[in-house]
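hiii so my PI (J.) wants the whole complex modelled not just the main chain, which honestly fair. so below is everything: two entries, each one labled with what it is. i double checked the lines twice but i was tired so who knows lol
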Amino acid sequence: MAKGITKRSEDYSKWYLDVIDAAQLAEHSAVKGCMVIKPTGYAIWEHIQANLDRLFKETGHVNAYFPLFIPENFMHREAQHVEGFAPECAVVTHGGGKKLDEPLFVRPTSETIIWSTYKNWIQSYRDLPILINQWANVVRWEMRTRLFLRTTEFLWQEGHTAHATEKEAVDETLLILGVYRTFAEEYMAAPVFTGIKTEKEKFAGAVRTYCIEAMMQDYKALQCGTSHYLGQNFAKAFDVTFQDEQSKVRYVYATSWGVSTRLIGALIMMHSDDNGLVLPPRLAPTKVVVVPIWKEDAERAAMKQKAVDLTRDWKGRIPYKIDDRDQYRPGYKFNEWEKRGVPIRIEMGPKDVAQNQVIVVRRDTGEKIAVPQYSLLATIEALLEKIQKDLYARALRNRDANTFTCDEYKELIERLESPGGFFWVHWCGQGACEEKFQQDAKATIRLQPIEDGGEPGACIVCGAPSAQRVLVAKSY
RNA sequence: CGGGGCGUAGCGCAGUCCGGUUAGCGCGCCUGCUUUGGGAGCAGGAGGUCCUGAGUUCGAAUCUCAGCGCCCCGACCA
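here's the output for the full assembly
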Protein backbone atom coordinates (compact mmCIF):
# COMPACT_ATOMS: atom_id res chain seq x y z
CA MET A 1 0.00 0.00 0.00
CA ALA A 2 2.52 2.57 1.11
CA LYS A 3 5.07 3.10 -1.62
CA GLY A 4 8.43 4.20 -0.44
CA ILE A 5 8.09 3.26 3.21
CA THR A 6 10.02 0.23 4.37
CA LYS A 7 7.98 -2.10 6.57
CA ARG A 8 8.79 -2.09 10.26
CA SER A 9 9.22 -5.84 10.17
CA GLU A 10 11.81 -5.60 7.40
CA ASP A 11 14.07 -2.88 8.74
CA TYR A 12 12.91 -0.83 11.68
CA SER A 13 15.72 1.67 11.34
CA LYS A 14 15.04 2.27 7.67
CA TRP A 15 11.31 2.50 8.36
CA TYR A 16 11.98 5.27 10.87
CA LEU A 17 13.91 7.31 8.34
CA ASP A 18 11.31 6.64 5.64
CA VAL A 19 8.51 7.90 7.88
CA ILE A 20 10.39 11.12 8.58
CA ASP A 21 10.94 11.58 4.86
CA ALA A 22 7.37 10.71 3.85
CA ALA A 23 5.89 12.98 6.52
CA GLN A 24 8.28 15.78 5.54
CA LEU A 25 9.48 16.29 9.10
CA ALA A 26 13.21 16.78 8.58
CA GLU A 27 16.17 16.06 6.35
CA HIS A 28 19.93 15.85 6.54
CA SER A 29 21.65 19.18 6.07
CA ALA A 30 24.88 20.20 4.41
CA VAL A 31 26.48 20.01 7.85
CA LYS A 32 27.34 16.55 9.06
CA GLY A 33 25.18 15.40 11.92
CA CYS A 34 22.88 18.41 11.74
CA MET A 35 19.34 18.29 10.43
CA VAL A 36 16.99 20.73 8.80
CA ILE A 37 13.69 20.60 10.63
CA LYS A 38 11.05 21.20 7.98
CA PRO A 39 7.84 23.14 8.61
CA THR A 40 5.75 20.10 9.55
CA GLY A 41 8.39 18.79 11.93
CA TYR A 42 8.89 22.19 13.43
CA ALA A 43 5.15 22.63 13.90
CA ILE A 44 5.14 19.49 16.04
CA TRP A 45 7.99 20.95 18.08
CA GLU A 46 6.00 24.16 18.49
CA HIS A 47 3.10 22.15 19.90
CA ILE A 48 5.44 20.37 22.29
CA GLN A 49 6.88 23.71 23.30
CA ALA A 50 3.55 25.43 23.77
CA ASN A 51 2.16 22.74 26.04
CA LEU A 52 5.29 22.20 28.10
CA ASP A 53 5.80 25.93 28.43
CA ARG A 54 2.32 26.27 29.85
CA LEU A 55 2.95 23.41 32.30
CA PHE A 56 6.20 25.03 33.42
CA LYS A 57 4.53 28.38 33.96
CA GLU A 58 1.64 26.79 35.83
CA THR A 59 4.22 25.38 38.24
CA GLY A 60 5.83 28.75 38.84
CA HIS A 61 8.65 28.88 36.32
CA VAL A 62 9.66 31.75 34.05
CA ASN A 63 11.68 31.85 30.85
CA ALA A 64 15.01 33.58 30.30
CA TYR A 65 17.89 33.29 27.88
CA PHE A 66 21.60 32.74 28.45
CA PRO A 67 24.50 32.86 25.96
CA LEU A 68 25.36 30.19 23.44
CA PHE A 69 29.05 30.51 24.36
CA ILE A 70 30.72 29.44 27.57
CA PRO A 71 34.24 30.53 28.58
CA GLU A 72 36.50 27.49 28.78
CA ASN A 73 37.35 28.00 32.44
CA PHE A 74 33.67 27.75 33.39
CA MET A 75 33.50 24.29 31.90
CA HIS A 76 36.39 23.20 34.09
CA ARG A 77 34.93 24.35 37.40
CA GLU A 78 32.94 21.21 38.13
CA ALA A 79 35.14 18.12 37.80
CA GLN A 80 32.50 15.52 36.89
CA HIS A 81 30.79 17.93 34.55
CA VAL A 82 33.85 18.71 32.47
CA GLU A 83 34.87 15.08 32.37
CA GLY A 84 31.46 14.14 31.00
CA PHE A 85 30.97 16.93 28.53
CA ALA A 86 34.32 18.31 27.36
CA PRO A 87 35.02 15.41 24.97
CA GLU A 88 31.85 16.13 23.02
CA CYS A 89 32.02 19.91 22.87
CA ALA A 90 32.54 22.19 19.92
CA VAL A 91 35.03 24.92 20.79
CA VAL A 92 35.40 28.33 19.19
CA THR A 93 39.04 29.38 19.03
CA HIS A 94 38.80 32.34 16.65
CA GLY A 95 36.54 35.36 16.39
CA GLY A 96 36.66 38.45 14.24
CA GLY A 97 39.69 37.05 12.44
CA LYS A 98 41.76 36.79 15.59
CA LYS A 99 42.63 33.96 17.90
CA LEU A 100 40.70 34.31 21.14
CA ASP A 101 42.57 34.71 24.41
CA GLU A 102 40.30 32.10 25.90
CA PRO A 103 38.41 29.54 23.81
CA LEU A 104 34.62 29.60 23.97
CA PHE A 105 32.70 26.36 24.30
CA VAL A 106 29.46 26.10 22.39
CA ARG A 107 27.06 25.07 25.14
CA PRO A 108 26.39 21.35 25.44
CA THR A 109 24.14 22.33 28.39
CA SER A 110 24.06 25.56 30.35
CA GLU A 111 24.69 24.79 34.02
CA THR A 112 28.05 26.55 34.06
CA ILE A 113 27.10 29.80 32.36
CA ILE A 114 23.91 29.96 34.37
CA TRP A 115 25.50 29.30 37.75
CA SER A 116 28.20 31.85 37.04
CA THR A 117 25.27 34.26 36.59
CA TYR A 118 23.28 33.05 39.59
CA LYS A 119 26.29 33.91 41.74
CA ASN A 120 25.51 37.55 41.06
CA TRP A 121 21.80 37.15 41.61
CA ILE A 122 21.81 35.39 44.95
CA GLN A 123 22.80 36.88 48.30
CA SER A 124 19.89 36.23 50.62
CA TYR A 125 17.41 33.44 51.23
CA ARG A 126 14.94 36.06 50.02
CA ASP A 127 16.43 35.73 46.53
CA LEU A 128 15.43 32.08 46.45
CA PRO A 129 14.10 30.09 44.85
CA ILE A 130 15.03 30.94 41.28
CA LEU A 131 12.87 28.97 38.87
CA ILE A 132 14.09 29.59 35.35
CA ASN A 133 13.67 27.73 32.11
CA GLN A 134 15.22 28.47 28.74
CA TRP A 135 14.33 27.28 25.25
CA ALA A 136 17.56 26.91 23.37
CA ASN A 137 19.78 24.99 21.02
CA VAL A 138 22.78 23.03 22.25
CA VAL A 139 25.63 21.25 20.52
CA ARG A 140 27.09 17.87 21.37
CA TRP A 141 29.69 16.46 19.01
CA GLU A 142 28.31 12.94 18.92
CA MET A 143 30.10 10.42 16.80
CA ARG A 144 26.99 8.93 15.34
CA THR A 145 23.75 10.77 14.73
CA ARG A 146 20.18 9.89 13.81
CA LEU A 147 17.47 12.35 12.84
CA PHE A 148 15.71 13.66 15.96
CA LEU A 149 17.11 10.96 18.24
CA ARG A 150 20.65 12.26 18.30
CA THR A 151 21.89 15.18 16.25
CA THR A 152 24.95 17.34 16.67
CA GLU A 153 22.83 20.41 17.29
CA PHE A 154 19.43 19.96 18.85
CA LEU A 155 16.64 22.07 20.29
CA TRP A 156 15.52 21.63 23.86
CA GLN A 157 14.41 23.30 27.00
CA GLU A 158 16.58 23.35 30.08
CA GLY A 159 15.32 24.35 33.48
CA HIS A 160 17.78 25.59 36.06
CA THR A 161 16.56 26.21 39.57
CA ALA A 162 18.21 27.40 42.76
CA HIS A 163 16.92 26.60 46.26
CA ALA A 164 17.71 27.24 49.90
CA THR A 165 17.29 23.67 51.06
CA GLU A 166 17.95 20.17 49.90
CA LYS A 167 14.33 19.20 50.41
CA GLU A 168 13.06 22.05 48.31
CA ALA A 169 15.45 21.18 45.49
CA VAL A 170 14.57 17.49 45.59
CA ASP A 171 10.88 18.39 45.59
CA GLU A 172 11.48 20.55 42.53
CA THR A 173 13.29 17.71 40.77
CA LEU A 174 10.36 15.40 41.43
CA LEU A 175 7.81 18.07 40.53
CA ILE A 176 9.35 18.38 37.09
CA LEU A 177 9.61 14.64 36.71
CA GLY A 178 5.86 14.65 37.31
CA VAL A 179 5.36 17.37 34.70
CA TYR A 180 7.32 15.31 32.19
CA ARG A 181 5.34 12.24 33.02
CA THR A 182 2.06 14.11 32.62
CA PHE A 183 3.18 15.58 29.34
CA ALA A 184 4.30 12.21 28.01
CA GLU A 185 1.11 10.46 29.01
CA GLU A 186 -1.48 13.11 28.26
CA TYR A 187 0.01 14.81 25.22
CA MET A 188 2.38 12.32 23.64
CA ALA A 189 0.11 9.39 24.49
CA ALA A 190 3.28 7.76 25.72
CA PRO A 191 3.28 5.50 28.76
CA VAL A 192 6.55 5.98 30.63
CA PHE A 193 8.37 4.43 33.54
CA THR A 194 9.87 6.91 35.96
CA GLY A 195 12.91 6.21 38.05
CA ILE A 196 16.47 7.00 39.03
CA LYS A 197 19.53 6.51 36.85
CA THR A 198 22.45 4.47 38.15
CA GLU A 199 25.70 6.22 39.09
CA LYS A 200 27.10 5.20 35.73
CA GLU A 201 24.19 6.65 33.77
CA LYS A 202 23.51 9.81 35.72
CA PHE A 203 24.13 13.36 34.44
CA ALA A 204 27.72 14.54 34.73
CA GLY A 205 27.68 16.78 37.77
CA ALA A 206 24.42 15.56 39.30
CA VAL A 207 23.87 13.98 42.66
CA ARG A 208 20.91 12.06 41.29
CA THR A 209 19.24 11.84 37.89
CA TYR A 210 15.56 11.02 37.50
CA CYS A 211 14.18 10.05 34.13
CA ILE A 212 11.21 8.98 32.11
CA GLU A 213 11.72 5.98 29.84
CA ALA A 214 9.39 4.85 27.09
CA MET A 215 9.24 1.66 25.04
CA MET A 216 9.38 1.98 21.27
CA GLN A 217 7.64 -0.43 18.91
CA ASP A 218 10.84 -2.43 18.51
CA TYR A 219 10.90 -2.92 22.30
CA LYS A 220 13.90 -0.67 22.79
CA ALA A 221 13.93 2.03 25.43
CA LEU A 222 14.16 5.73 24.74
CA GLN A 223 15.02 8.19 27.48
CA CYS A 224 12.46 10.94 26.95
CA GLY A 225 13.34 13.38 29.69
CA THR A 226 15.62 13.87 32.66
CA SER A 227 15.38 15.83 35.88
CA HIS A 228 18.56 16.20 37.91
CA TYR A 229 19.08 16.94 41.56
CA LEU A 230 22.44 18.69 41.49
CA GLY A 231 22.90 19.15 45.22
CA GLN A 232 25.45 21.87 45.95
CA ASN A 233 27.88 20.75 43.25
CA PHE A 234 27.46 23.77 41.00
CA ALA A 235 26.99 26.19 43.89
CA LYS A 236 30.37 25.10 45.22
CA ALA A 237 31.98 25.18 41.77
CA PHE A 238 30.78 28.75 41.21
CA ASP A 239 30.79 29.84 44.83
CA VAL A 240 27.09 30.61 45.02
CA THR A 241 26.08 31.21 48.62
CA PHE A 242 23.29 32.94 50.50
CA GLN A 243 22.58 34.02 54.05
CA ASP A 244 19.72 32.15 55.66
CA GLU A 245 17.26 33.42 58.28
CA GLN A 246 19.88 32.85 60.97
CA SER A 247 22.44 34.91 59.00
CA LYS A 248 24.40 31.76 58.32
CA VAL A 249 26.19 31.58 54.95
CA ARG A 250 25.24 28.45 53.01
CA TYR A 251 25.63 26.99 49.56
CA VAL A 252 22.61 26.97 47.27
CA TYR A 253 20.95 23.74 46.13
CA ALA A 254 20.30 23.21 42.43
CA THR A 255 18.27 21.29 39.91
CA SER A 256 18.28 21.10 36.15
CA TRP A 257 15.96 19.31 33.77
CA GLY A 258 15.34 18.99 30.07
CA VAL A 259 13.56 17.46 27.13
CA SER A 260 14.59 17.84 23.52
CA THR A 261 13.56 17.42 19.90
CA ARG A 262 14.23 13.76 20.58
CA LEU A 263 10.60 13.66 21.71
CA ILE A 264 9.61 13.90 18.05
CA GLY A 265 11.60 10.73 17.44
CA ALA A 266 9.73 9.12 20.32
CA LEU A 267 6.39 10.11 18.84
CA ILE A 268 7.32 8.55 15.53
CA MET A 269 8.63 5.31 16.99
CA MET A 270 5.76 4.79 19.41
CA HIS A 271 2.73 5.41 17.25
CA SER A 272 3.52 5.37 13.55
CA ASP A 273 2.89 2.43 11.23
CA ASP A 274 3.83 1.04 7.84
CA ASN A 275 1.71 3.68 6.12
CA GLY A 276 3.61 6.55 7.69
CA LEU A 277 3.30 8.96 10.56
CA VAL A 278 0.65 8.62 13.25
CA LEU A 279 0.39 11.55 15.62
CA PRO A 280 -1.51 11.91 18.88
CA PRO A 281 -4.19 14.54 18.12
CA ARG A 282 -3.05 16.89 20.88
CA LEU A 283 0.33 17.36 19.21
CA ALA A 284 -0.84 17.21 15.60
CA PRO A 285 -0.38 20.57 13.84
CA THR A 286 -3.25 19.70 11.51
CA LYS A 287 -5.91 17.63 13.24
CA VAL A 288 -8.39 17.22 10.39
CA VAL A 289 -8.06 17.28 6.64
CA VAL A 290 -11.13 17.64 4.45
CA VAL A 291 -10.93 16.11 0.98
CA PRO A 292 -13.74 17.21 -1.31
CA ILE A 293 -14.38 14.76 -4.15
CA TRP A 294 -15.90 15.47 -7.53
CA LYS A 295 -16.41 13.81 -10.87
CA GLU A 296 -17.37 16.62 -13.19
CA ASP A 297 -16.40 20.25 -13.42
CA ALA A 298 -19.87 21.23 -12.32
CA GLU A 299 -19.45 19.29 -9.09
CA ARG A 300 -16.02 20.65 -8.38
CA ALA A 301 -17.08 24.16 -7.48
CA ALA A 302 -20.04 22.87 -5.49
CA MET A 303 -17.91 20.45 -3.45
CA LYS A 304 -15.23 23.02 -2.78
CA GLN A 305 -17.86 25.43 -1.58
CA LYS A 306 -19.46 22.71 0.53
CA ALA A 307 -16.11 22.05 2.23
CA VAL A 308 -15.82 25.72 3.11
CA ASP A 309 -19.39 25.86 4.42
CA LEU A 310 -18.92 22.70 6.42
CA THR A 311 -15.87 24.02 8.26
CA ARG A 312 -17.06 27.57 8.68
CA ASP A 313 -17.43 27.39 12.45
CA TRP A 314 -14.27 25.32 13.04
CA LYS A 315 -11.91 28.28 13.11
CA GLY A 316 -10.36 28.65 16.53
CA ARG A 317 -11.59 25.21 17.58
CA ILE A 318 -9.86 22.71 15.33
CA PRO A 319 -6.76 23.21 13.18
CA TYR A 320 -7.80 21.82 9.79
CA LYS A 321 -6.98 21.90 6.10
CA ILE A 322 -9.15 21.63 3.03
CA ASP A 323 -7.29 19.79 0.29
CA ASP A 324 -9.04 20.99 -2.84
CA ARG A 325 -6.02 20.79 -5.12
CA ASP A 326 -7.09 20.10 -8.70
CA GLN A 327 -3.95 18.31 -9.77
CA TYR A 328 -4.32 15.31 -7.49
CA ARG A 329 -7.00 12.68 -7.35
CA PRO A 330 -8.65 11.60 -4.13
CA GLY A 331 -6.60 8.42 -3.73
CA TYR A 332 -3.38 10.38 -3.90
CA LYS A 333 -4.59 12.80 -1.26
CA PHE A 334 -5.78 10.05 1.07
CA ASN A 335 -2.38 8.50 0.88
CA GLU A 336 -0.49 11.73 1.32
CA TRP A 337 -2.34 12.74 4.47
CA GLU A 338 -1.91 9.27 5.90
CA LYS A 339 1.84 9.52 5.40
CA ARG A 340 1.79 12.91 7.07
CA GLY A 341 -0.07 11.70 10.13
CA VAL A 342 -3.20 13.85 10.15
CA PRO A 343 -5.42 12.13 12.76
CA ILE A 344 -8.76 12.49 10.96
CA ARG A 345 -9.61 12.66 7.29
CA ILE A 346 -12.99 13.69 6.00
CA GLU A 347 -14.08 12.47 2.59
CA MET A 348 -16.89 14.44 1.07
CA GLY A 349 -18.33 13.72 -2.36
CA PRO A 350 -21.61 14.21 -4.21
CA LYS A 351 -23.05 10.97 -2.81
CA ASP A 352 -22.41 12.07 0.76
CA VAL A 353 -23.66 15.59 0.25
CA ALA A 354 -26.86 14.19 -1.22
CA GLN A 355 -27.41 12.38 2.07
CA ASN A 356 -26.26 15.28 4.25
CA GLN A 357 -23.36 13.24 5.57
CA VAL A 358 -19.58 12.92 5.22
CA ILE A 359 -17.17 10.01 5.64
CA VAL A 360 -14.86 10.34 8.65
CA VAL A 361 -11.69 8.24 8.59
CA ARG A 362 -9.37 7.58 11.52
CA ARG A 363 -5.66 7.61 10.74
CA ASP A 364 -4.77 5.28 13.59
CA THR A 365 -7.19 2.46 12.76
CA GLY A 366 -8.33 3.21 9.22
CA GLU A 367 -11.92 2.94 10.42
CA LYS A 368 -14.45 4.80 8.25
CA ILE A 369 -17.77 6.05 9.53
CA ALA A 370 -20.57 8.06 7.93
CA VAL A 371 -21.42 11.09 10.04
CA PRO A 372 -24.43 13.42 9.60
CA GLN A 373 -23.28 16.94 8.83
CA TYR A 374 -25.27 18.54 11.62
CA SER A 375 -23.29 16.69 14.30
CA LEU A 376 -19.91 16.73 12.58
CA LEU A 377 -18.01 19.14 14.78
CA ALA A 378 -19.06 17.46 18.01
CA THR A 379 -18.29 14.04 16.54
CA ILE A 380 -14.83 15.13 15.47
CA GLU A 381 -13.96 16.70 18.77
CA ALA A 382 -15.01 13.56 20.59
CA LEU A 383 -13.20 11.35 18.12
CA LEU A 384 -9.95 13.29 18.48
CA GLU A 385 -10.08 12.69 22.23
CA LYS A 386 -10.85 9.03 21.65
CA ILE A 387 -7.92 8.65 19.27
CA GLN A 388 -5.68 10.29 21.83
CA LYS A 389 -6.79 7.79 24.49
CA ASP A 390 -6.66 4.82 22.14
CA LEU A 391 -3.10 5.59 21.10
CA TYR A 392 -2.06 5.68 24.72
CA ALA A 393 -3.87 2.42 25.42
CA ARG A 394 -2.27 0.75 22.42
CA ALA A 395 1.20 1.89 23.44
CA LEU A 396 0.56 0.74 26.99
CA ARG A 397 -0.58 -2.68 25.80
CA ASN A 398 2.55 -2.98 23.70
CA ARG A 399 4.72 -2.08 26.66
CA ASP A 400 2.93 -4.34 29.12
CA ALA A 401 3.06 -7.26 26.73
CA ASN A 402 6.81 -6.85 26.42
CA THR A 403 7.81 -6.07 29.98
CA PHE A 404 8.89 -9.04 32.06
CA THR A 405 10.56 -10.08 35.26
CA CYS A 406 13.56 -12.34 34.88
CA ASP A 407 15.81 -14.13 37.37
CA GLU A 408 18.11 -16.20 35.15
CA TYR A 409 21.07 -14.35 33.67
CA LYS A 410 21.49 -16.57 30.63
CA GLU A 411 17.80 -16.32 29.85
CA LEU A 412 17.95 -12.54 30.28
CA ILE A 413 20.74 -12.17 27.74
CA GLU A 414 18.96 -14.41 25.24
CA ARG A 415 15.65 -12.65 25.60
CA LEU A 416 17.21 -9.19 25.40
CA GLU A 417 18.64 -10.26 22.08
CA SER A 418 15.39 -11.75 20.83
CA PRO A 419 12.63 -10.78 20.96
CA GLY A 420 13.75 -7.95 23.27
CA GLY A 421 11.74 -6.01 25.79
CA PHE A 422 11.95 -4.45 29.22
CA PHE A 423 13.15 -6.72 32.02
CA TRP A 424 12.80 -6.16 35.75
CA VAL A 425 15.78 -7.89 37.33
CA HIS A 426 17.52 -7.93 40.68
CA TRP A 427 20.77 -6.04 40.82
CA CYS A 428 23.24 -5.73 43.66
CA GLY A 429 24.14 -2.12 42.90
CA GLN A 430 27.69 -2.73 41.75
CA GLY A 431 29.08 -1.18 38.60
CA ALA A 432 30.81 -4.39 37.56
CA CYS A 433 27.52 -6.26 37.31
CA GLU A 434 25.97 -3.34 35.46
CA GLU A 435 28.74 -3.39 32.89
CA LYS A 436 28.17 -7.06 32.30
CA PHE A 437 24.71 -6.38 30.86
CA GLN A 438 26.28 -3.93 28.52
CA GLN A 439 29.00 -6.26 27.35
CA ASP A 440 26.86 -9.35 26.99
CA ALA A 441 23.71 -7.84 25.53
CA LYS A 442 24.43 -4.17 24.81
CA ALA A 443 21.71 -3.45 27.33
CA THR A 444 21.73 -0.95 30.16
CA ILE A 445 19.95 -0.36 33.41
CA ARG A 446 17.40 2.21 32.35
CA LEU A 447 16.26 3.08 35.83
CA GLN A 448 15.83 2.06 39.43
CA PRO A 449 12.41 2.58 41.02
CA ILE A 450 12.11 5.71 43.13
CA GLU A 451 10.24 4.03 45.95
CA ASP A 452 11.70 0.97 47.58
CA GLY A 453 8.96 -1.55 47.52
CA GLY A 454 9.58 -4.68 45.58
CA GLU A 455 10.54 -7.94 47.17
CA PRO A 456 14.24 -8.41 47.94
CA GLY A 457 16.20 -10.96 45.95
CA ALA A 458 19.60 -11.90 44.59
CA CYS A 459 21.55 -10.03 41.91
CA ILE A 460 20.96 -11.71 38.56
CA VAL A 461 24.66 -11.45 37.76
CA CYS A 462 26.55 -12.17 40.98
CA GLY A 463 23.91 -13.41 43.41
CA ALA A 464 24.62 -10.77 46.04
CA PRO A 465 21.60 -9.43 47.96
CA SER A 466 19.37 -6.98 46.11
CA ALA A 467 16.73 -4.76 47.71
CA GLN A 468 14.65 -4.31 44.59
CA ARG A 469 14.45 -4.91 40.88
CA VAL A 470 15.78 -2.50 38.24
CA LEU A 471 14.70 -2.05 34.64
CA VAL A 472 17.07 -3.42 31.99
CA ALA A 473 16.67 -2.91 28.26
CA LYS A 474 18.42 -2.09 25.05
CA SER A 475 18.10 1.54 24.27
CA TYR A 476 18.53 4.26 21.68
C1' C B 1 38.33 6.26 15.46
C1' G B 2 37.55 1.00 13.29
C1' G B 3 34.48 -1.78 9.46
C1' G B 4 31.28 -1.45 5.06
C1' G B 5 28.88 1.35 1.07
C1' C B 6 28.41 5.54 -2.06
C1' G B 7 29.21 10.51 -4.76
C1' U B 8 26.15 11.03 -12.51
C1' A B 9 19.24 16.10 -13.38
C1' G B 10 15.21 17.94 -7.39
C1' C B 11 15.04 12.42 -5.67
C1' G B 12 16.34 7.13 -6.75
C1' C B 13 19.64 4.84 -10.07
C1' A B 14 22.09 2.59 -14.91
C1' G B 15 26.46 3.51 -17.59
C1' U B 16 32.64 2.85 -15.10
C1' C B 17 35.27 -3.55 -15.32
C1' C B 18 36.85 -3.21 -21.34
C1' G B 19 38.10 5.24 -22.58
C1' G B 20 35.17 6.93 -28.39
C1' U B 21 29.56 11.00 -31.74
C1' U B 22 24.72 14.61 -28.74
C1' A B 23 25.45 10.85 -21.01
C1' G B 24 20.59 7.53 -20.28
C1' C B 25 16.20 5.40 -17.32
C1' G B 26 12.31 5.76 -13.41
C1' C B 27 9.90 9.18 -10.10
C1' G B 28 9.09 14.25 -9.59
C1' C B 29 8.54 19.09 -12.29
C1' C B 30 6.26 22.35 -16.65
C1' U B 31 2.36 22.58 -20.91
C1' G B 32 -2.05 20.48 -23.20
C1' C B 33 -6.12 17.07 -23.52
C1' U B 34 -8.81 13.23 -21.21
C1' U B 35 -9.54 12.02 -15.99
C1' U B 36 -11.03 12.42 -10.45
C1' G B 37 -14.92 7.71 -4.15
C1' G B 38 -7.58 4.54 -2.43
C1' G B 39 -1.03 6.63 -5.24
C1' A B 40 -4.60 8.40 -13.30
C1' G B 41 -3.52 7.98 -18.88
C1' C B 42 -1.56 9.88 -23.35
C1' A B 43 1.35 13.55 -25.96
C1' G B 44 4.95 17.31 -25.81
C1' G B 45 8.82 19.74 -22.81
C1' A B 46 12.42 21.83 -19.22
C1' G B 47 16.32 20.30 -16.27
C1' G B 48 23.62 17.95 -16.04
C1' U B 49 30.44 21.73 -12.91
C1' C B 50 29.16 13.07 -14.22
C1' C B 51 32.17 15.35 -5.95
C1' U B 52 37.06 18.36 -6.46
C1' G B 53 42.05 18.81 -8.26
C1' A B 54 46.17 17.03 -10.85
C1' G B 55 47.90 13.39 -14.31
C1' U B 56 47.79 9.71 -18.70
C1' U B 57 45.59 10.10 -23.72
C1' C B 58 44.05 12.46 -30.19
C1' G B 59 39.90 11.78 -26.74
C1' A B 60 38.13 10.72 -19.62
C1' A B 61 31.72 9.92 -16.13
C1' U B 62 35.02 5.64 -17.44
C1' C B 63 42.18 4.75 -16.35
C1' U B 64 46.08 6.68 -12.34
C1' C B 65 47.22 9.61 -7.95
C1' A B 66 45.68 12.90 -4.18
C1' G B 67 41.86 15.23 -1.64
C1' C B 68 36.75 16.32 -0.04
C1' G B 69 31.93 14.84 1.33
C1' C B 70 27.82 11.75 2.69
C1' C B 71 25.20 7.29 4.34
C1' C B 72 25.04 2.57 7.08
C1' C B 73 27.15 -0.79 11.17
C1' G B 74 30.13 -0.48 16.09
C1' A B 75 32.57 2.30 20.59
C1' C B 76 30.50 7.86 23.11
C1' C B 77 25.51 10.17 24.26
C1' A B 78 19.36 13.93 25.34
